[in-house]
Amino acid sequence: MPAIWREGVSPAERFAFGREGTLIGALGMEFLEAGDDWVRGRMPVDERTRQPYGFLHGGASVAFAETMASWGGDCCVPYGKTCMGMEINANHVRPAPAGWVYGRATPESLGRTSQVWTVRITNEADKLVCISRVTLAVVDVKSSA
Q1: Domains of the chain
Q2: Residue 96: which of 53, 138, 137, 63 has the closest Cα?
């Protein structure tokens, strides 16, 4: 299978763009690797991402899933376009009390105006913590100025 990434785009370099001062940086999300049609990252389970009972907060899992899908989506759209979350669902399967969770995002559909990605979030023992389906809108990049 040929790589889905836009020519000249490195998923690792793209992930580093815009981390500082964003939710991605605040929650400690990190890039790990990318294949021809998937991206993988990790997020710590710590005081930034836990709920009051000491487990990974479902909202942190959703933020991580949307970040992973959006990152992958952004790397395969034409220049002048980007991807933004339009809809997300998540099934929280198992609690994660500490350590790291790992997210692997793969596309289900790469359309011209929308994309659908599946994100599997696992714990350090590779057991499923959350599975999410993310629909992305493909939009024009606009200046924030």
Answers
A1: 11-140 (3.10.129.10)
A2: 53
Q: Are 91 and 119 in contact (CB under 8 A)?
A: no
3-state helix, strand, coil in the chain (%, to 5): 20, 40, 40
Q: Is the pTM of this model over 0.90?
A: yes
Q: Which residues are catalytic?
A: 66
Only one residue has tokens 């350590």, namely 99
Each residue's pLDDT expressed in tens, for the chain with a length of 145 residues:
678 888 877 777 777 666 778 899 999 999 999 999 999 999 999 999 999 999 999 999 999 999 999 999 999 999 899 999 999 999 999 999 999 999 999 999 999 999 999 999 999 999 999 999 999 999 999 855 4
From 23, 19, 16, select the one nearest 39 (Cα to Cα).
16
Strands (E) across 10-113 are located at 30-34, 39-45, 81-92, 99-110
Please give the angle made by the CA atoms of 85, 91 and 5, to the nearest 5 degrees: 40
Residues 25-48 as b or e (16 or more Cβ within 10 Å = b): eebebebeebeebbbbbbbbbeee
